[in-house]
Amino acid sequence: MASSSTVDILDAVLGGRRIGEEEALHLFQHADLLDLAAAATATRNRHNDPARVSYVIDRNVNYTDVCNVYCSFCAFYHKPGDPRGYLLSWDQLKQKAEETKAVGGTGFLIQGGVNPDLPWTYYLELVSFLRDLGIWVHGFSPVEIQMMARLSGLGLSGTLQALRDAGLGSIPGGGAEVLVERVRKRIAPLKGGPEKWLEVMEAAHALGMKTTGTMMFGITETLAERVEHFRVLREQQDRALARVNGGGHTAFVAWPFQSGHTVWAGKLDKPTDAEYLRTIAVARIYLDNFPHIQSSWVTMGRKTGQMALHYGCDDMGSLMLEENVVSAAGTCYSVNRDEMHRLISGAGFAFWQRDNIYRPL
Question: Considering its fold, how many domains does the chain have in total?
């Protein structure tokens, strides 16, 4: 039997009331999983057509794997000077763009390492090159943009405006991990605290740009720290929406840490499917100002990805024509368009294709 406080919180959610941090933590700790599914679905349906689920055809392109931030959880990067490191050529990028467009794709989610060998002008040339190829650039994690701002001398706002003028369309949420000082210091001390990630997104929202909120969980954080992560995202989204300039987070996506081939391998319990569904459901309930929540079938697999559509998710994300970072840690799932359609329809929904900022195609 659910406790009266749990029932009261769930009833409040079903009635459309915003819940607080303590209530979200209580749901994490005590709510029945199926009750969470019902409450998260009710929240989802206030934002989206209950009968439809979206997806995007794009490509995760890592233009370089050279990085000097050395995050302990990353199995992808190579240190500067390592002969195994790479930088994609313009011809390689053009080929990837042509392959993407040939299967109905519209954009690149483009990120790399923090590569000290690249000048500021490279990034402007990169985004303008892709824009001219007809590719929407959903690009660069905040830590990369912080580095670009140091190179350009334009500050965050000036750097983002220059990138936008060159062809940057929107910004992914990579590199958030868990937006709690204790966790970030432990897993990625050179990346900076939560404020470094948040200030890039704040500057982008002030310019009217669209971004994505993310969380990588299961890397030493407590449940209370997951809720803290949700809190700072919700507060940032409140500020963005108050500007009424078109900026803000379009969606939230969470995935469990993949420890393979990292220093954490064998030291942490991998979050279970049930824990993932609980986390995504509480996120959907608490992040009541986020229009979309994305299922992370790429890390969880097809079946759990489908289940997430009944725990608050309204989007199945990308076909993953290419993915390098998660697969470097030993997890690799991919589907084609027909399989994506079957996954969505098999879960009981109609499918629709979107672009990187959730416009229908």
Answer: 1
